[in-house]
Design goal:
By secondary structure, the chain is mostly helical. The chain contains ten helices and no strands. The longest helix is centred in the middle third of the chain and has 26 residues. This is DUF937 domain-containing protein.
């Protein structure tokens, strides 16, 4: 089943830390915050009626078919330039630097570390989502990816711990979803991240 723990297991934390010359504990803490933020950002794009998510959904499908996760992720196989483009797809055209500045101080670590991590993590996260989506919809028509997210929205809800399952899903603020994912006391930290992501998406929360 698609869930955050399974997604985290795909990420070679020690290898990423080594490549960046960063402390492994700091990198791990940053990943624990950034990955739900990335999944939540994709989810908001897919569910928002006033955001055209077709390019992002195509990118998710392409990453899922890229083979990046096959046999374990190798950091050197991650196209960081493409990662930057994917970050902009998710966050309303904001690049990794702008997103890093917004997320710095939310528990994800310093802005410099976040800026370096985003282009590495984003292709991995989208490859995981795309692979889960392909497995679930293998016999389905491409139309399953239609406006509103279809099965993709279900996959994203599943990864985020089912916090977004059910008929009223689109009405759940991102902050509360991330709050439950991050286990923040009272959801404060999650709500802060939700507000930031809403701002990056053009105020759409």
């Amino acid at each position: 089943m698609a869930d955050l723990n399974d997604l985290f297991a795909q990420i070679p934390v020690a290898e990423i830390a080594n490549k960046l010359g960063a402390d492994e504990g700091e990198v791990n803490n940053a990943i624990k915050t950034l990955v739900p933020a990335l999944v939540g950002g994709v989810q908001q794009n897919v569910q928002a009626e006033d955001i055209d998510s077709s390019n992002l959904e195509s990118a998710v499908t392409a990453q899922g078919a890229s083979g990046l996760l096959d046999g374990g992720v190798k950091v050197d196989d991650v196209d960081q330039k493409e990662g930057d483009q994917l970050v902009a797809h998710i966050f309303g055209g904001n690049d990794s630097g702008q997103v890093a500045s917004a997320l710095a101080g939310t528990g994800a670590g310093g802005g410099d570390l976040i800026k370096k991590l985003l282009p590495i993590l984003t292709p991995i996260v989208l490859a995981y989502i795309g692979k889960q989506f392909a497995q679930k919809n293998a016999p389905a028509e491409p139309a399953a990816q239609a406006s509103g997210g279809g099965g993709l929205g279900d996959i994203l809800g599943s990864i985020l711990g089912g916090a977004n399952a059910g008929g009223g899903a689109a009405n759940n603020p991102l902050g509360s979803i991330l709050g439950s994912v991050l286990g923040g006391g009272g959801g404060g930290q999650g709500n802060a991240i939700g507000e930031i992501l809403g701002g990056l998406l053009g105020g759409k929360k």
